[in-house]
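Example record

The entry below shows one chain as it appears in the dataset: sequence first, then structure tokens.
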Amino acid sequence: MQLPDPLEPLFAGPPGAHAELTAPFLGAWLRGELRNRSFAVAGVARATTSLGDTDVLLRHLAGGSWAPAFLTLDNPGTGLEALLALGFRDAAWSEVAAMIERNPIASEPLLHARRDDPALLRGLHEGHTNDRVRQAALVATIAHADPVPPGLEDGWTLRNASFIPLAQAALAALGPARAGVVILRAMTRLDAEPQHREQALLPVLERVGPWLDDATVAAILARCELLAAHEPGMWVSAGECMTRGGQWRHGLALTTARLATESDPGRQRGLRQMFRVFAAAAAAQGEALAPEWERHLDLAESADRGNYDEWRRCTAVLAALDVDRAEAILVAAWPAYVRPTDAFRYLRAGLSDAYLDRLAGLHVGLRDDLGAQDVLHGTRLTALGAAFALALARALADSKPKPKKSYLKALERNLEPAAYEQLSGLLAARPAARR
């Protein structure tokens, strides 16, 4: 069936008035023919670029669930799991079962979005041949049971568990003690498969959250420490896994609490690496770091030019802070830098004249230092703004001998053109040195 042109009148009438066009509309959307379109439903614009809005549009056409329309299409739904969870959340069980047969990967998000009869889920768990579907049915039963029957979680292995929200809901439903048993059992399995330990720990880390007790979290961190001896990036991976699980706020509280009492230098460093992952996630969400946690950033530890990701995280956190707080952190970090040039790793706009003067004095003082040339010539200074040109002029006015052409060329390359022009004018206006 062909879609009419224009489409806007389809959404002007009551829901279900054009139910026969649900499948054609959905097919056009899947083929990309409705990109960047918007239609008004009940006076509210709904964009086809939004899954939630697309669900609203389809429900208006269908007059309810559009799951039956999808099942008429020759489409496995691969990559559409998030949309399918919206469309099948109130579909008949037979339609859900048909969709799972078509796309077993969709079983977890579909079952998470629903509240199905435990008997149906138990039948799916016991009767299906696909292990992923079996596990999804079991975990959904746990997540939605109240209370969870004793021993129900005994068959949960965390294998084939890719949809994090469903597993997190199940762990929360179990309570700390029983959830800890599931997690510790999964980690015990790792000992029997040492060649997969790093990779196999990731599903555990993605499920760390406030539903686990301190003993379980301590066991997980101990495993991270053990694996970090062979995989240096393990602590960062742990932080990234928790962030993927949406638990960066919990991660901030967890790492800062443990840093407050931890005395082992290796564990301290690992916890700081995790902390920086969570702090950067907070910055990405527009949330500034709590003042009492600032010291855990440790800019000196992250200034190593061989560790771009650590530096990038700290830069993101500094950019999310107001300039006074960011400058206070920069000032506190300065004495701990391993190399003087590490101070140029963290540059941002709005810094005070006092800090810019200190930075400019360092820049000018290192201009003839052979070990600093790569940094001085390769570091862009545009973030500091025109005020840094004035600071450089003040520093150069007090310096001898006259700066070399190569140094001025480096400044020309790394300052904004207007800032360099201003600096050149200030230097040209200096009184000539007496012979």
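Notes for this example: The first strand starts at residue 38 and ends at 41. Residues 175-346 form one domain.
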